[in-house]
Amino acid sequence: MVDQKKRRKGPHDGEATRETLMDAAEKLFAEQGVEAVSIRAVNSTAGLAPAAVHYHFGSKEALLTAVLERRGRSVVADIAERCDQLLAQEGQPNARDVMETVVAPYLALLERDHIGGGRWLAITGQLILSGSREMEALSAPATERLQTLVRRAFPDTRPDDLENTWRLAVEAVVLLLARAPGDEPEADGPQELGGREALIDFATGGLVHALRGAAERRVRTSSR
């Protein structure tokens, strides 16, 4: 019989430990804030040795990147796929379809894993508010497609107005959803925001209204 104490750890042991550390970090980052959480706290919450984070990730920054990528990759892939589908269609996409391209993947994440998805969104919201750029590399596979889609939907809008307003609209959606979840799966769900369709309508209306306002301000400024 193999002595379990002497059994060598295989790759699956390392993967399980990394997942345990990411689970602990995700919970702490969402509840306490990324900056407030120490490596020691992550190791302690995970029930692992003091050197676990350094051994498996190398640094807190690398751990944060891994936490973002774990759920974020599927969100970005979903956005990219939706963009490709709209870009393959003839004609000009409407504002709601474009907004849904971003909102729907976030809602799908919450539907798949309400607690984990909610924590991921809470962390993402923190990074947006702090002006951090950790999400840029993660979002890169969808960014160019999304920019092309938005320009096609609003061809008469000045590029700088479009870029700024679109960014604010997406950030507003993330921040609206980025509330640290409670212990119960039903807490803080999209249904509390009026449902999936209502949220997409709300985001679309805000985007269109803001773009109209930007255009009107430019007209007033030029007429002075």
From TrEMBL:
This is TetR/AcrR family transcriptional regulator. InterPro entries: DNA-bd_HTH_TetR-type_CS (IPR023772), Homeodomain-like_sf (IPR009057), HTH-type_TetR-like_transc_reg (IPR050109), HTH_TetR (IPR001647), PsrA_TetR_C (IPR041586). It comes from Streptomyces endocoffeicus. Residues 38-57 bind DNA. SUPFAM superfamilies: Homeodomain-like (SSF46689). Gene3D superfamilies: Tetracycline Repressor, domain 2. It holds the Pfam family TetR_N. Keywords: DNA-binding, Transcription, Transcription regulation.
